[in-house]
Automatic annotation (TrEMBL):
This is GTP cyclohydrolase 1 type 2 homolog. Keywords: Metal-binding. One of its GO terms (cellular component) is cytoplasm. Gene3D superfamilies: NIF3 (NGG1p interacting factor 3)-like (3.40.1390.30).
Length: 266
């Protein structure tokens, strides 16, 4: 569906992606006939099975299917078998990662809106080759009503529908007004959140030693996981459905119903 991809790349050009990020066509042909598009966070074997079951012939994913090149095509490797299955069923796969993260009205604006942030600004300048100063990863803004670090973390569990999260803080009763958020693995950018006045930084995949550094720097961090980026699914479905109606594209857009979070809290 070349027309859909071209329209999306006006919204979030590939050249806004971070250097080395493998965005764009992942497998198949953009000239293939498309009737049903499935949007998803991840492309995993179970997601491909779901696409086949619902009759999708185009998978649009936030996380690129091929972060790392295949070293061989041994079909005993589940990932390689997934590629073969996609080809067998003539399913095209496209990935939009950090270009969607940085796009105005994209991933990080969806996360900021979910947190009900006000007076929202960009957080980290994009390194995309055509990105301007207005193109940024992450957002920072103010809560309409101040709360505490602990209560804000509880609110994040509800907002992002997660069973558990990690709170990096020595001051859980401290007040919170200003919040930074960056979908995915935003740990390396915590000093920018601190410099911009964030009381709390919401991001995923915080590791042990950076967690200590964040506490030492006086920054509270809520890590609800990487999977909160699944917020993209209803938003992409609505966006693509709107574009299809405006352009009279004969396609149906569905969202993957699967939870591809590899972590379970027990």
């Amino acid at each position: 569906m070349r027309e859909l991809v071209e329209r999306f790349e006006q919204f979030a050009p590939k050249t806004w992606a971070e250097p080395g990020d493998p965005v764009g066509l992942q497998l198949g042909s953009l000239d293939a006939e498309v009737h049903k598009v499935m949007v998803t966070l991840d492309v995993r074997p179970e997601v491909v099975d779901e696409a086949i079951a619902v009759g999708a012939d185009f998978i649009f994913a936030h996380h690129p299917m091929m972060f790392h090149p295949a070293k061989n095509l041994d079909l005993a490797v589940p990932q390689n078998q997934m590629y073969a299955t996609l080809l067998q069923h003539h399913i095209t796969v496209y990935g939009a990662h950090t270009n969607l993260d940085s796009a105005p009205g994209g991933m990080n604006d969806w996360l900021a809106a979910a947190l009900n942030l006000q007076d929202v600004e960009g957080l980290v300048p994009s390194n995309g080759v055509t990105a301007t100063s207005a193109i940024t990863m992450g957002r920072i803004g103010n809560l309409p009503t101040p709360t505490t670090v602990r209560q804000f973390a509880v609110d994040c569990k509800r907002i992002f529908n997660v069973k558990g999260l990690r709170l990096v803080s020595h001051t859980p009763d401290a007040p919170v007004k200003r919040v930074a958020v960056l979908g995915g693995s935003g740990g390396p950018f915590y000093q920018t959140a601190l410099a911009k006045g964030a009381d709390v930084y919401v991001t995923g995949d915080i590791s042990y030693h950076p967690g200590h550094d964040m506490i030492a720097a006086g920054l509270n961090v809520v890590d609800p996981g990487h999977h909160i980026e699944s917020i993209c699914k209803p938003h992409l479905q609505a966006l693509f459905t709107q574009w299809a109606a405006e352009n009279q594209w004969p396609i149906t857009v569905v969202a993957s119903q699967l939870n591809t979070d590899p972590f379970t809290f027990i």
